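Task card 7
Instruction: Convert sequence to structure tokens.
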Amino acid sequence: MSDRHYEPEPALAATAVGGTVDLGVEEAETPKKRPAGPDGPAPRDRPRSLWSDAWRDLRRNPVFIVSGLVILFLVLIALWPSAIASRSPLDCDLSKAQEGSQAGHPFGFDGQGCDVYTRTVHGARTSVAVGVLATLGVAVLGSVLGALAGFFGGIWDSILSRITDVFFAIPVVLGGLVLLSVITSDTVWPVIGFIVLLGWPQLSRIARGAVITAKQHDYVQAARALGASNSRLMLRHIAPNAVAPVIVVATIALGTYIALEATLSYLGVGLKPPSVSWGIDISAASPYVRNAPHALLWPSGALAITVLAFIMLGDAVRDALDPKLR
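Output:
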């Protein structure tokens, strides 16, 4: 055996001028290991999904926080209006008609002597109910029809496209005047049905385009090659990646549906008395706006704040779910 002592090869590092320098064994760069926990090495960070990234961005967005708090307050007073307005919205006193703010009546009285504050609070229930239920109906009907047309294509896609073209050609307000004028029901269901009838084509187009884009991805083609059925492809691979634009459009549309209900009620073909609605109160207060502007101001302000809150929420959700804006 040789008595030659073995010397380890020195660790070299590049210098700024192109040479090398001996770092020594102690200073040589070695791979860093993750600190071990009580149960072994720490696990690697898991990649975040689109939804987790979106939720993280939403929590940091002041627009989402403000609009979310406003909507939460509206939902609470829609469910329990008596919590902040103990009077009945139908309890009126003609002797106080068009009077201004008084003790216990901060918003004054309308032309029928009804408390404007109480009617404004109770009107939130109708507006929120119409907006939420109509949006759910539009989202379900439009998403299902649009997704099926985009997935299967062919004759079904052509038929759906021509049907949506027909509905897009119908003016919304004019259609409401024609269809709702022959209905005598005092409930919210005719208005909800009308909004769903004329609102689903927009969501259908959005869902169709999202499904067509998603089904062309490599992971969908790979799942199809492995023998996945159409239902599995749609529910497990395409739908989770195509639902984001539908959620964004539906959130923004919810505010417009609330405004549409108020418009139809203002024109006298939506909700009718004794129902309580912001549109009905705005219509009733319009003739005497000069003598009692407060009766028009408060329901109009509540309607504007509600619509603006849902539109701001939809904009924040769109920014969070759109990868191109990151």
